[in-house]
Amino acid sequence: MGQPTHRTVAVNGIDLHFAEQGEGEPVVLCHGFPGLWFSWRHQLAALSAAGYRVIAPDMRGYGRTSAPAQVSEYDRPHTVGDLVGLLDALGIERAVFAGHDFGAHLTWDLPAWAPDRVSALMQLSVPRAPRLPVQPSVGFKYLASKHFAHVHYFQEPGVADRELGENTRAFLAKIFHALSGANRYLDCWEFPSEGNGYLDVLPEPPALPWNWLDEGEFDYYVTEFERTGFTGGLNWYRAEDAVWAQNESLHAKPVEVPVTFIAGAKDPVLEMMGSDPFATMGLLVPGLVSTHVIPDAGHFVQMEKPAEVNSAMLEFLGGLTTT
């Protein structure tokens, strides 16, 4: 089987790097924090082998894509503009978009922001949720008054940037383990915010290799983030107030394009969202075709259980061509 090719295109005021593999109907895969195009390596291979043109960018702020310094450049017009610009640069009118973590947060918004460019969504790990009643930073501060909350810790420029950047290998090992099917992330909630950094509250991981991540794959992440630092990824969190305001009239707009949702049964993010994170998704997403909750997988479901995720994606994509 072939390997993805890599290109960089100038779009929307930045240089956007992406990996691409296959020919056919386009599928764009959008990662979250702390991800890279490489987070979709298993999907690039499987979907391209099935006859799709698969495109996995390093999102704004990550990897070999530009990382603007200003938080304002991570708001919704900029992040949507990156994806629209990528389609334009590749001569693509419409695509299926897949999102994971912050990538899902963005791609949930795409049908409202760029309705003519989205044919369907494949969303991983982050369900569509109702609009927050207060600014995100206000909610983050409240959470931090109860226990350590990374979303609040990440808000102050320079603080998390320095801690994570000086401990790249340790941080990545801890966060990948804690959010995986090991389901240790909520250990963080046993610690107060005051006096703690992120590495202080994350549990110690076992030695690599794990059953879903080997030393070579892990080293790719370490090398990239040692080179770039984490500020670009952290700026997505710092732009949340702006995104919330920009979505005021759009967030409740129903997502009517066909959607499949895929999550790990042991994803701590689902626990953080409450007892039934799927309760309102049907109302917000009338286009929801299928939901897949994959046993023994956590937040990084596309890497932890690639065969199951690939199967769910291909079943969904196949259904699009027959309807």
From TrEMBL:
PANTHER family, per database record: EPOXIDE HYDROLASE
Protein origin, superkingdom: Bacteria
UniProt cross-references to Pfam families, sorted A to Z: Abhydrolase_1
Name of the protein described by the UniProt record: Pimeloyl-ACP methyl ester carboxylesterase
GO MF: hydrolase activity
Chain ranges of the AB hydrolase-1 domain: 26-126
Keywords, ordered alphabetically: Hydrolase
InterPro entries to which the protein is assigned, alphabetical: AB_hydrolase_1 (IPR000073), AB_hydrolase_fold (IPR029058), Epox_hydrolase-like (IPR000639)
